[in-house]
Amino acid sequence: MGDFGVEAEAGELGFDARRLERVDRRLRAYVDDGRLPGWLLSISRAGRVAHLSTYGSRDLESGAPVTDDTVWRWYSMSKPVTSVAAMMLYEEGALQLTDPVSDFIPPFADLRVYTGGSDLRPSTVPVAEPPTVWHLLTHTAGLTYGFMRAHPADAIHRARGFEWSRPAGFDLADCCEAWSGIPLLFQPGTGWNYSVATDVLGRVVEVASGVSLEEFFRTRIFEPLGMTEAAFHVPAERRDRLASLYLPGPDGTAVPGGELGKVGSRPPRTLSGGGGLLGTARDYHRFTQMLLGRGTYDGVRLMGSRTVDYMTRNHLPHGADLAAFGRPLFSETPFDGTGFGLGFFVVGDPVALRGIASVGEYGWGGAASTLFWVDPAEEITVSFFTQLLPSGTHPLRAQLRALVHQALVD
């Protein structure tokens, strides 16, 4: 990939090279015993790559190895990209965080909130406060995901064709109209729940900008930052570099993902800002460097520095963490000691988190066990890529955070 590789000696950036070897040693064990097909890890500090390693296969059947230019499904690591797009429009005055979602998606004017009953006969009341753009960015709108399997509204999502996919022929506008007819879990602003909110936000970006989400990403984020392979699908000439998707089998080893493994191999009908992007580790590295640079990277500025600062502070009421304010079900982050900003987890209390971290560290993960975080205090960015669905199958993330921090010795 030319411009993606180790850029400085570990010691020069405050890492102990022998301690960094522990990271790879631990991660290699996941491949050697069959739990993961393969992986890529990059660790940077002060804008320079200190460690870049790969191991295992991007496709177990063919034996093709993971390479620096392997293409990965980002799933929910798409969410920060969509959140950045929305905030770019906020900076231009094209939307306000207090704007009702219904200003952009009219069916959201008539939402109802679940109060009891079953998924077949739910009791509902009208929404007291229409959800705003801010509610979408913070996952406090009361929306949900069909795969949660914890609430009657989740079951309604599944019954209407929304779990890991969408009804055939639905575009993003169709999805938003369908979601507007499903009861919210709670009144907007009164709780936190991981949800389709960022997909809805993607539709807001389309309406506010007047272009498709695909075009906005390409012209306003990907091309300016040099994210040359980030896209909603992989073209035929690059498809051999697309990592295969795997699921945990009955014995814990990775098995092929079946129909889900076709995701990303052709243009999608629905442009999912919540989980539809693919790209290389190099692409996402450039995105993380823009965040670390508080809106700028490689001579390009996407956002003002104060906008990034605002996005990466905890927006939950009274500084609450997700354990206190969220529904403690599935998320791509631990709940204790962790707040939520505009598209990112934000570490508020490493002691409550029960793991070494910096206050203000932020990032997110994806459903196929990918992860990134940015640590402004230490000037560190970390990106980890593999393709095992769902995330949380293994304790990778907590281990990786500990392994990276233990290698810092300055």
From TrEMBL:
The lineage of its organism: Bacteria, Bacillati, Actinomycetota, Actinomycetes, Kitasatosporales. The keyword tRNA processing does not apply. InterPro entries: Beta-lactam-related, Beta-lactam/transpept-like, Diverse_Enzym_Activities. Gene3D superfamilies: DD-peptidase/beta-lactamase superfamily. This is Serine hydrolase domain-containing protein. It comes from Streptantibioticus silvisoli. Residues 23-405 form the Beta-lactamase-related domain. Keywords: Hydrolase. Its EC number is 3.1.1.103. One of its GO terms (molecular function) is hydrolase activity. It comes from the Bacteria. PANTHER family: BETA-LACTAMASE FAMILY PROTEIN (AFU_ORTHOLOGUE AFUA_5G07500), BETA-LACTAMASE-RELATED. Pfam families: Beta-lactamase (PF00144).
